UniProtKB/TrEMBL annotation, chain A:
Sorted UniProt keywords: ATP-binding, Nucleotide-binding, Transport
Span of the signal peptide: none
Chain segments annotated as coiled-coil in the UniProt record: none
SUPFAM superfamilies, A to Z: P-loop containing nucleoside triphosphate hydrolases
A GO term for molecular function: ATP binding
Name by which UniProt lists this protein: ATP-binding cassette domain-containing protein
Family: Belongs to the ABC transporter superfamily.
Keyword Mitochondrion: no
Domain ABC transporter: 3-216
The keyword Transport is annotated on this UniProt entry: yes
UniProtKB/TrEMBL annotation, chain B:
The family this protein is said to belong to: Belongs to the ABC transporter superfamily.
Pfam families, per database record: ABC_tran (PF00005), oligo_HPY (PF08352)
Highest taxon, organism lineage: Bacteria
NCBIfam families in alphabetical order: oligo_HPY
Entry keywords, A to Z: ATP-binding, Cell membrane, Ion transport, Membrane, Nickel, Nickel transport, Nucleotide-binding, Translocase, Transport
Higher taxonomy: Bacteria, Bacillati, Actinomycetota, Actinomycetes, Pseudonocardiales
Protein name: Nickel import system ATP-binding protein NikD
Length: 218, 317
């Protein structure tokens, strides 16, 4: 079982493809690193694999299942198998929600209504990513980038996705927070999570990934 | 030649108007910025690094309670410059800060500098306006050259700049008033490694022209590359200071050692536990709960103790 991109081509402006004929496979239980300099199309690749951006040609297959549509048009059963962590936690978190509400939201959206289940799952994730009870009641503007990114990782893991796509997840983080979040995700990888991590930080990719691919040949 | 001497800097935010509880963002910090040297201040996110620069430039919200002193000492030869005299930045009124400090005495480079630019005007127009406003007479072409900003970039609008170029514009704007002191808050966050190296080299070059430069960063590798001195901050306090090569080759504080061991390629091991809440700091050494080996011995005052040109805030390490 794997998340596959097949002959993906796409971009944002007509005639300017930033991803060209790209094949990539993220097996369950493995960490695949994607290296490349700023502006080469790494984030576009992540968005296509996350079913957030329509490729011009080629397709994305989640455990073999494909869909011609993206975003809310794609079947929830496929989208729910994909978690995403973005580079800028501040741009990725609703400023009106507390950190706890951020983590609970995808569980609610997935149809979980049992307050006890929601609380247990949130407590467990918060504990693992290192959010104290006090932090969890704060809103994004009241916490640091590192603390907010911890919440974003918990949010992405909350619905137990099969695959996690990390787009420069640690670019804003210090060494210890980086190592801590990588180890949290590492435990999920042992349980079968497939991870695609995109970064320009070569030592990080070397230490974290099972394999590193360089689709842009730099 | 201008020094900035920070002594006993303490910044607190009260949690609610009547609440007896505080967030202690900066506790009892002593720092010396010396002309010709780049000091890197490193630490985990949320440890109070940014609040420190905001305190020095009078940009804290009015709810902040600030104690201590930050004296600017300008010397020409051995003489004190009477124009600056012995200005305490923490004691200065808004007018002094606006008319004499920001941009003129202290340049500030922010994180993602592009977001500070006016989106509807070209880079060149904004730099010219900054130079004119500060009355420094600096030539914009020369300014661009100094930060290796291509001349063509002066005709671009902010949204047309890449992250690295935007950062160079931010540095150019901070240097527009030719300030003797430069503060940079996470100037390399989000940049890729070649751009990080490039930005740090530029900052080191501005220091070696005779400025006192403070760079706040979470990136130990960037600090190792470009800094002369290092200060390690944790939970609002400095835990260790000294020449960067010495501190990184032989860290005295177990927190500094922990940060090094967390680097990918050097162990990739996170420091166990989490930093304390700045609203609930423990008495004594704030790092003690994460350093079991020192739990018994480190109940003392965590004040820095100097040994030669280094200082450490933990007698057990």
């Amino acid at each position: 079982m794997s998340l596959d991109g097949r002959t993906l081509t796409g971009g944002w402006r007509r005639g300017h493809a930033v991803v060209r004929d790209l094949d990539i496979t993220v097996p369950r239980g493995r960490v695949v690193g994607v290296a490349g300099p700023s502006g080469c199309g790494k984030s576009t690749l992540v968005r296509m694999l996350a079913l957030l951006h329509q490729p011009w040609s080629g397709h994305v297959a989640v455990d073999g299942a494909t869909t011609p549509r993206v975003r809310f048009g794609a079947p929830a059963s496929l989208r729910r198998r994909l978690g995403v962590v973005f580079q800028q936690p501040r741009a990725a978190a609703d400023p009106r929600l507390t950190l706890d509400e951020l983590v609970v939201e995808p569980l609610r959206a997935a149809g979980e209504r049992d307050a006890g289940v929601l609380r247990d799952r949130t407590d467990d994730l918060a504990e693992r990513v290192g959010l104290t009870r006090e932090l969890r009641s704060r809103r994004p503007h009241e916490v640091s980038d590192g603390q907010l990114q911890r919440a974003c990782v918990a949010r992405a893991l909350a619905p137990r996705p099969a695959y996690l796509l990390c787009d420069e997840m640690t670019a804003m983080l210090d060494a210890s927070t980086t190592a801590a979040l990588v180890s949290v995700i590492g435990r999920e990888v042992e349980r079968g999570l497939g991870v695609l991590t995109v970064s320009h930080d070569e030592p990080l990719l070397a230490a974290w990934s099972d394999e590193v691919v360089r689709p842009w040949h730099w | 030649m201008t020094d900035l001497e920070v002594r006993g800097l303490d910044v607190r935010f009260r949690l609610g108007r009547r609440s007896p509880r505080y967030v202690r963002a900066v506790s009892d910090v002593d720092l010396d910025l010396r002309p010709g040297r780049l000091l890197a201040l490193v630490g985990e996110s949320g440890c109070g690094k940014s609040v420190l620069t905001e305190a020095l430039t009078g940009l804290l919200p009015s709810t902040a309670e600030v104690r201590g002193s930050a004296h600017v000492v300008r010397r020409s030869g051995a003489e004190l410059d009477p124009a600056i005299g012995d200005l305490d930045l923490l004691d200065a009124d808004e007018r002094t800060l606006r008319e004499r400090v920001r941009g003129r005495l202290i340049g500030l480079v922010g994180q993602s500098a592009g977001s500070y630019l006016t989106p509807t005007r070209t880079v060149g127009a904004q730099l010219r306006e900054t130079v004119q406003h500060l009355g420094s007479g600096v030539d914009v072409g020369e300014l661009a050259e100094r930060v290796q900003l291509p001349t063509a970039a002066l005709d671009l609008y902010p949204h047309e700049l890449s992250g690295g170029t935007a950062q160079r514009v931010g540095l150019a704007a901070a240097l527009a008033g030719d300030p003797p002191v430069l503060l940079a808050d996470e100037p390399t966050a989000g940049l890729d490694r070649p751009l990080v190296d490039h930005t740090m080299d530029l900052l080191a070059a501005t220091a070696h022209e005779g400025r006192a430069v403070l760079v706040i960063t979470h990136d130990l590798r960037a600090a190792r590359r470009a800094a002369d001195d290092l200060a390690v901050m944790y939970a609002s306090r400095l835990l260790e200071t000294g020449p960067v090569a010495d501190v990184l080759a032989d860290p005295w504080h177990s927190y500094t050692a922990g940060l090094l061991a967390a680097l990918p390629g050097e162990g990739f091991t996170p420091i166990p536990g989490h930093p304390p809440e700045l609203s609930a700091l423990p008495d004594g050494c704030p790092f003690r709960p994460r350093s079991p080996a020192h739990a018994q011995t480190c109940t003392d005052d965590p004040r820095l103790v100097a040994f030669g040109d280094r200082a450490v805030g933990c007698v057990a390490s």
